[in-house]
Design the sequence.
């Protein structure tokens, strides 16, 4: 099993690596297109600001590589948002894998949403063995609007897509690597896809 | 619904927990990793490590500890204490910390909040504020509460929010250590004034205090140390009571 975490300078990727280690898998950090193309599974992480993250992706040519990948790819948090059509954060064009747009929560609620919230209407093999209304850890100011590719929903101000899937591409707004045992189960499911 | 968070706080010196910790079934109560794992198992929502090492060597040991916590613990954690530069934060995040908490260094150089939030994102910048109510005015204190300033708590909190802080950790020095409850009036005022999450700290003595800070204090999270470390309030019992009082928590 060759598991690659795309390392393009965004965020706390150590936590993701450690989470896979705890499951008994080595995950390699890399931004080398050859490595990424030949991997069995690819994690696309991201914490930070969208336009600067996209800039880093473009500089390394990963913006054109990622949409062509054929193996299972899991975008986490900003990673998922960058896989959408567009995000309001820095008015950033996304990779266009998920046919939805990313908007900012209004000031009617505290922003960022920070903490544990439930995921429901679970629809994918990614959630095999995960119960409805399971708690996940989320930290985000922007959310993906629902679309046909929604595979989990969460309520915060509105009901939004907390996970997406299009063919081999998966995205979670929450951080499975920080979401206790249920989060670990989702990572295990991803490995087994 | 987003749940209220319960956050045990561990004081770390030279990579070890200090202040007494009295946990049954713990081989080494001084080992922060083992303690952190135990808290994660018990249902803590997050952890805060406060580094009180005074030396460079002590801080290096703390970095090593952070790495081990990140390796073994599957809930988020914040590291605070003595952080004053982008490099300090970068090193902690590289070791796997999810957030950092800055305090005196932000007061001395407020641009640090801007710098950190633009470089690493607001989500990982917690601004800790220690304040004391003197003649009805809440004044910010520095260096663990030992140095008073003329800065108003609410003005400072609003300022750091505008500079990009992702969260405020407010400790009331009037309440800290008293076990008489949190500073709910000031907390509620902060919560109304700001649009970022507020963590209540200082004064936890019993379960009712947590209920009160979530209801009256409008706090998003509550942090405590001794009541958890000495098993006075077991976290599973606390969360069950909160749930019974219609407060959303992760069970």
Sequence:
């Amino acid at each position: 099993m060759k598991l690659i975490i795309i390392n393009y300078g965004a965020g706390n990727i150590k936590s993701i690596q450690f989470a896979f280690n705890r499951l008994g898998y080595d995950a390699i950090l890399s931004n080398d297109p050859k490595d990424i193309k030949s991997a069995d599974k690819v994690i696309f992480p991201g914490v930070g600001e969208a336009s600067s993250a996209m800039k880093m992706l473009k500089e390394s040519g990963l913006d054109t590589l990622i949409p062509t990948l054929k193996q299972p790819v899991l975008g986490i948090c900003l990673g998922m948002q960058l896989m959408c059509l567009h995000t309001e954060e820095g008015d950033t064009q996304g990779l266009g894998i998920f046919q939805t747009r990313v908007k900012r929560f209004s000031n009617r609620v505290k922003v960022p949403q920070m903490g544990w919230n439930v995921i429901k209407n679970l629809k994918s093999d990614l959630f095999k063995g995960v119960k409805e209304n399971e708690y996940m850890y989320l930290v985000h100011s922007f959310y993906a609007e629902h679309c046909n590719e929604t595979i989990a929903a969460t309520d915060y101000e509105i009901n939004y897509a907390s996970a997406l899937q299009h063919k081999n591409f998966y995205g979670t707004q929450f951080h499975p690597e920080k979401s206790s045992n249920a989060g670990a189960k989702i990572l295990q499911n991803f490995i087994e896809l | 619904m987003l749940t209220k968070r319960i956050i045990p706080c561990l004081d770390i010196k030279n990579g070890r927990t200090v202040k007494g910790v009295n946990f049954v079934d713990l081989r080494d109560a001084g080992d922060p990793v083992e303690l952190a794992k135990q808290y994660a198992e018990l249902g803590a929502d997050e952890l805060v490590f406060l580094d009180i090492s005074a030396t460079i060597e002590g801080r290096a040991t703390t970095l090593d500890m952070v790495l081990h916590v990140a390796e073994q613990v599957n809930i988020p954690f914040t590291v605070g204490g003595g952080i004053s530069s982008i490099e300090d934060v970068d090193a902690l995040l590289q070791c796997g910390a999810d957030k950092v908490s800055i305090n005196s260094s932000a007061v001395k150089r407020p641009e640090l909040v801007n710098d950190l939030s633009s470089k690493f994102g607001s989500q990982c910048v917690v601004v800790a504020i220690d304040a004391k109510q003197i003649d009805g005015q809440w004044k910010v204190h520095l260096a663990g509460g030992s140095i008073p300033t003329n800065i108003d708590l609410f003005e400072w909190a609003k300022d750091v929010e505008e500079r990009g802080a992702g969260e405020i950790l407010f400790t009331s020095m009037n309440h800290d250590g008293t076990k008489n409850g949190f500073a709910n009036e000031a907390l509620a005022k902060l919560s109304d004034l700001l649009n970022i999450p507020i963590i209540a700290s200082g004064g936890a003595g019993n379960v009712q205090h947590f209920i009160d800070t979530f209801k009256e204090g409008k706090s998003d999270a509550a942090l405590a140390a001794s009541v958890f470390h000495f098993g006075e309030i077991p976290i599973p019992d606390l969360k069950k009571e909160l749930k019974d009082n219609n407060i959303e928590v992760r069970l």
The mean pLDDT of chain A is 95.
